[in-house]
Design goal:
Elements: H1 2-23, E1 33-39, E2 51-58, E3 63-71, H2 79-85, E4 89-96, H3 97-107, E5 111-115, H4 120-133, E6 140-142, H5 150-161, E7 167-169, H6 179-183, H7 191-200, H8 218-226, E8 228-230, E9 235-236, E10 242-245, H9 258-279, H10 284-306, H11 325-330, H12 338-354, H13 366-379, H14 383-386
Antiparallel strand pairs: 1-2, 1-5, 2-3, 3-4, 4-6, 5-10, 7-8, 8-9
Length: about 400
């Protein structure tokens, strides 16, 4: 709790000081340098992917600032609702390098710096662009986790400052990797977080990622920058990495696997379903909460698809099994419509049979849930069950 409060104070201070920095008219000397700083992950879910910042330092003029994209004002009205809808304004903020390092040191997170091989004019151009972005009427933008975040903004600012922005990246992208697969290494220990993210992401996140798109994750931007060469000069864009801080925080504990939980759940449901058919149990105490949760989650999926501007939540095929038809079935448990039952089971079967060829990857924990739902729906198609 204290660490969260400390981080909030630091970010809020950076938010307030950004405007002050931007108003200062300063010209960098020829000895100034700029660097990319890659920050290690934090323990909170939203910090699992790390962070990217740009540092500009000029000892001659006493400037040593760090610019952060992807920050926001915690006191924004309707913060969470705007975030859900995709309308939360993020901004660029600036703080002193010293305060920046102290905040990450306090959190026990790592920092790695890559000094950029920029000419004095390129460094000045980058600094002027960053300062211009900090102006009150220019510092806000709509954040997109995959296409417009702290890493992609930093990449674009650096590339736009070059005399010749043509780059060659030796480390090319694996053409088989997708956005979804790229975020898995950073949610590996947070398995329930990964399960929830997989439910919300649509099939757009399952298309191959280009070399340029790789850079949306701070650590991948760092790795790409290590092998990036300016085509005009043939020289590397960045010097070798320097470790500023090593990670000292305790890692998140390994969470219980959703796969294990839901396979056990399916086993219980299967046993109860067979016993219910044999003994004539209706098991509505099981079906009402199960169908309610599935039906409500289907509404969440549809809202994120049709009523938000999030690029990554569109065309979400999880709606095949998180199906709003379960709400209809829920209110007709006493007299289930067989056609609706068959149609709903057909959607569930598509997930089970078509997981290998559907254009969206499903979390593996989905399959035991789908089997459990099919078992419960099938029980309502047995005449003896409906007559008791």
């Amino acid at each position: 709790m204290i660490k969260k409060l400390f981080t909030k104070v630091v970010l809020f201070a950076a938010f307030l000081t950004a405007g002050g920095f931007a108003n200062a008219q300063t010209t960098l000397s020829d000895n100034a340098f700029a660097s990319l700083i890659t920050c290690g992950p934090g323990n909170d879910y939203y910090l699992a992917f790390g962070h990217t910042s740009i540092r500009v330092c000029d000892p001659a003029s006493g400037i040593d600032r760090v610019y952060n994209y992807g920050t926001f004002d915690f006191d924004t009205p309707n913060l969470y609702w705007n975030f859900v809808r995709g309308y939360l304004n993020y901004c660029v903020s600036a703080c002193s390098y010293r305060n920046f390092v102290l905040s990450y040191q306090y959190e026990g997170r790592s920092l790695v710096e890559q000094r950029l091989r920029l000419t004095p004019d390129e460094c000045r151009r980058l600094f002027d662009a960053l300062e211009d972005n900090c102006l009150p009427d220019k510092r806000f933008y709509l954040y997109d986790f995959f296409r417009d975040n702290c890493a992609t903004r930093a990449r674009d600012m650096i590339v736009n400052a070059l005399d010749n922005p043509s780059l060659f990246v030796n480390r090319t992208a694996d053409s088989n990797r997708t956005y979804r697969q790229m975020i898995y290494p950073y949610t590996g220990r947070l398995k329930w977080w990964q399960f929830g993210v997989d439910l919300l992401l649509g099939m757009r996140c399952d298309r191959p990622v280009s070399t340029n798109d790789y850079m949306f994750i701070p650590f991948d931007l760092h790795d790409q920058l290590d092998t990036t060469v300016v085509s005009a000069t043939g020289k590397p864009l960045a010097e070798p990495s320097v470790q500023i801080l090593t990670e000292t925080k305790q890692p998140n504990p390994e969470s219980l696997s959703p796969d294990l939980v839901f396979w056990l759940f399916f086993l219980v449901v299967a046993v109860l379903t067979v016993a219910g058919v044999v003994r004539g149990w209706r098991l509505r105490w099981l079906d009402i909460p199960l169908f309610s949760v599935v039906g409500l989650l289907s509404i969440v999926i549809l809202v994120m698809w049709f009523f938000t501007i999030h690029w990554c939540t569109k065309w979400n095929l999880n709606v095949l099994w998180l199906n709003p038809l379960f709400l209809y079935i829920l209110f007709r448990l006493r007299k289930s419509n067989r056609i609706v039952l068959y149609v709903t089971m057909g959607f569930l079967a598509v997930v089970l049979i078509g997981f290998a060829w559907l254009p969206q990857q499903f979390n593996t924990a989905v399959f035991p849930i789908v089997l459990a739902l099919m078992a419960r729906l099938a029980s309502y198609l047995i005449p003896q069950h409906n007559n008791k």
